[in-house]
Design brief:
By secondary structure, this protein is an alpha/beta fold. It is built from 14 helices and 13 strands. The protein is globular, with a radius of gyration of 22 Å. Bound molecules: S-adenosylmethionine (SAM).
Length: about 425
């Protein structure tokens, strides 16, 4: 790290840990009773996908440093207190919390998200993963010809025949492994390559056929994915204390599990789907298709919970009403489990509907205040990544040309 002093530069010997390197630059806009700031996050997705954040590509995740900055500002007062992310997605909050030695829980309606979140923070034995990968590749080379592509129209639409055969073979091997952290790790890697080896665009949120896509070799893509994850995971394990709990649970945030009735949730971090952006289940339809046979194990038989996810698109009047009523109910739940003095940080953005602004940030502030929380801080973030051909410029984007659209990190206190 280079520190600027009066007229010369000195090299510090203390390295900033990677997870603190890209924290937002904060400018104060109002220092009144409710603080208003701007958080500038100029980094690329690649820079912000350090350590295990890159294990699983999750459309609509927040930059790791958003969770990091909230945790820096509001660290729980003891190691009994914890952070709960009630829309935990791919577990960004859990990774950032564990890196800081903070106990955390996540909740999501999608079993794939819960699995990916748990794998990202696991203390899996990486040499055992590598040994299993070697066995899998040997087995694959001997047995791949015995597998056919599924015959249904979904598979035929989204996958070349040879890719579907190979995916089928790898899935067969993984299904036969005994339950373990190694298996979970490999299943996440498997689900993580599905989009890449499909006929769909890699970068688009909702899958669309890319007629120009070059077919990738499935077993090479899988091996590379596992090896990349192993490298990142070793670095992560080296930085964290495994005694610090980080667990994601499958469930609907409209009714929090009893275990959270202990009064120890000091901070709830919450990043709901953005209004008028997209719904998660259809975006992950290819992954759910190849994951289906694993589902029962990871859900304990609770089938297709992800189908009752909070809907965010298209934002017609009825859906918008349901969206805000979901927000109100789920924050009534966090309020119910939290003690006075605890915090709620909501990460949420405005959108436009028929070219008219829907002031989601302001509406959220109002409805959360109605529940009884006090507003203490509003941070508006600028996020520079997401520009380019895959940005949904007509939906939720916050890149300058729509000055009035805000993306906020709103902090409340009970
Ligand atoms: C914007 S994403 C969160 C992304 C997360 N911050 C991350 O970095 O990966 C919203 C998440 O809410 C989940 N979700 C939707 N409805 C839910 C519900 N009723 N209960 C719990 N989670 C829900 C979706 O499955 C999705 O993963």
């Amino acid at each position: 790290m280079t520190q600027k002093t009066l007229d010369f530069e000195v090299e510090s010997t203390i390295e900033v840990p990677i997870f603190n390197k890209f924290l937002p630059t904060i400018s104060k806009m109002d220092d009144g009773p409710v603080k208003v700031n701007e958080w500038d996050i100029p980094n690329t997705i690649k820079e912000l996908s350090y350590l295990t954040h890159s294990h699983y590509r999750y459309y609509g995740k927040f930059p790791s440093v958003v969770a990091g900055q909230i945790l820096e500002q509001l660290p729980p007062p003891s190691d009994k207190h914890y952070v709960l992310d009630n829309f935990c997605g791919s577990g960004t909050t859990l990774v950032e919390a564990k890196l800081r030695g903070i106990k955390s829980f996540g909740l999501d309606i999608s079993w794939l998200s819960v699995l990916a979140s748990n794998v990202k923070v696991s203390n899996v034995d990486i040499s055992a993963v590598q040994a299993e990968l070697r066995l899998l590749v040997q087995w694959f080379e001997k047995n791949k010809c015995s597998f056919e592509a599924p015959e249904d129209s979904f598979s035929q639409k989204w996958f070349e025949d040879c890719a579907a055969k190979d995916l089928n073979a790898i899935r067969h091997y993984l299904l036969n492994l005994t339950e373990s952290e190694v298996k979970d790790f490999l299943v996440v890697a498997f689900i993580g390559i599905v989009r890449r080896v499909s006929k769909a665009h890699d970068g688009e949120v909702r899958p669309h056929i890319n007629k120009k896509k070059k077919q990738r070799d499935v077993i090479s893509a899988f091996s590379k994915k596992v090896n990349d994850m192993c490298k990142d995971h070793i670095d992560f394990i080296g930085l964290v204390d495994d005694n610090v709990n980080a667990t994601s649970l499958l469930g609907d945030n409209l009714s929090l599990p009893e275990q959270f009735d202990d009064g120890l949730c000091y901070l709830a971090i919450s990043h709901p789907p953005y209004l008028n952006s997209f719904n998660y289940a259809p975006v992950f339809s290819l992954e759910f298709y190849w994951g289906e046979l694993f589902e029962e194990h990871y859900t304990g038989g609770v089938k297709k919970l992800y189908k009752s996810e909070m809907r965010a698109h298209p934002a017609n009047e009825k859906l918008t009403e349901g969206y805000f009523s979901h927000l109100k109910k789920c924050y009534e739940e966090t309020y119910r489990i939290q003690k006075d003095g605890a915090y709620l940080a909501i990460v949420i953005g405005d959108c436009t509907r028929n070219k008219k602004l829907v002031p989601v940030v302001q509406k959220t502030i109002e409805l959360v205040k109605e529940i009884g929380y006090e507003l203490v801080e509003v941070n508006y973030r600028t996020t520079h990544y997401g520009l380019g051909k895959y940005a949904y410029s007509h939906r939720a984007d916050y890149h300058g040309d729509q000055e009035e659209k805000k993306d906020g990190i709103i902090i409340f206190k009970k």
